[in-house]
Amino acid sequence: MKSDLITGGSGFLESHVTRLYLSRGDKVRVLDELSTGSYENLVDLEVNADFSFTNEDVRNPFQIDCATVLNFERN
Which pLDDT does position 58 carry in this prediction? Predict the structure, then answer.
């Protein structure tokens, strides 16, 4: 199953979007460099096997296989 990528996912609103996608059974990968958000908004999701977090700036090159991209980065 491909995952959904949420960039900027550590913000208050974005963390709720992450929870919504997880609640419908999706695999969610959050990519955020934490300049405006906080990992504390996501820390409770660490126990969910369908959740992963990468501390990285979306402006840096990266490669990921995903079905959906939700870009909430503000930079």
Answer: 84
Distances (CA, A) of 38 to 3, 22, 32: 22, 19, 9
Distance CA 59, CA 1 (A): 26
Query: In which band, very low, low, confident or very high, does the pLDDT at 42 lie, cut at 50, 70 and 90?
Result: very high
Strand-pair partners of 40: none
Predicted confidence band of residue 38 (pLDDT cuts 50, 70, 90): very high
Q: Which amino acid is at 27?
A: K
Is residue 51 within 8 A of residue 26, CB to CB? The reply is no
